[in-house]
Amino acid sequence: MALQLHVIPVTPFQQNCSVLWCDVSNEAAVVDAGGDIARIRAFVEAKGLKVTKLLLTHGHIDHAGGARALADALAVQIEGPQKAESFWLDQLPQQGQMFGFAPSPALTPERWLEEGDTVSIGNEVLEVLHCPGHTPGHVVFVSRAANLCVVGDVLFQGSIGRTDFPMGNHEQLIDAIRSKLFVLPDDMTVVPGHGPFTTIGDERRSNPFVADRRYG
C-alpha cells in the first residue's frame, strides 16, 4: 500500500497540479487544479482513478482557477484552504481578468481546513499544516507514510513564496517554514507549487532565505 503522486504543470504559470492516489483503492485527490482541467481529467481517466475530492493549498488563480469547474464535472467537493483564504478566493474573477486567465467564479470550499485536520485519500491520510505568509490561509499537506509534503507556494528549491501581495507577511512565512516544515524529516520530499522537487533537509541546509546557516 502506498500513496502515489503525479504532477501536471498547468496554466501559463506552469503550476504543479498534483494528483495523489491510494494504489489499493484507486481513490484520488487533485491538489491545486489551477486550470487545464481537460489534461487533468485525461490523466485521471487513463489511470482509472476515482477522484473523491479536490484540495487547495491557497487561493491564487494559478492554483484555484479551475477547481470549481473540475469539482462540478466530477461531482466532488473541494477541501481547503484555511478560512482566511476567503480573501483571495472571493477575488478569483478579478484575478482572472488581471492575469488573462479564463473566467473563474468566486469560490467557497465545502470544507475549510485548519491546523491539525486530516484529509483521507482511500486508505491514505494527509496531515494539514496552516502555513500563512504567502497568503493568509495557505495550507500544506503532509503524508508521513509516503514521506512527502505538498507545500504550494510556501517553499521552493532555493527560494520561498512571495510576500509582496496583499495580505502577505514575510515574518509569518519564515516562521511557518522554520517551525512547521523544517521539523519534518530531512529526507522528506517537497512538492512545491512551481519548479522541481526538493527535500526538507536540502532547503534547511542551503536555502538562502531560511537555511540554518543564516538563522543559526
From TrEMBL:
<keyword id="KW-0862">Zinc</keyword>
<dbReference type="InterPro" id="IPR036866">
    <property type="entry name" value="RibonucZ/Hydroxyglut_hydro"/>
</dbReference>
<protein>
    <submittedName>
        <fullName>MBL fold metallo-hydrolase</fullName>
    </submittedName>
</protein>
<dbReference type="Pfam" id="PF00753">
    <property type="entry name" value="Lactamase_B"/>
</dbReference>
<dbReference type="InterPro" id="IPR051453">
    <property type="entry name" value="MBL_Glyoxalase_II"/>
</dbReference>
<keyword id="KW-0479">Metal-binding</keyword>
<dbReference type="InterPro" id="IPR001279">
    <property type="entry name" value="Metallo-B-lactamas"/>
</dbReference>
<keyword id="KW-0378">Hydrolase</keyword>
<feature type="domain" description="Metallo-beta-lactamase">
    <location>
        <begin position="14"/>
        <end position="194"/>
    </location>
</feature>
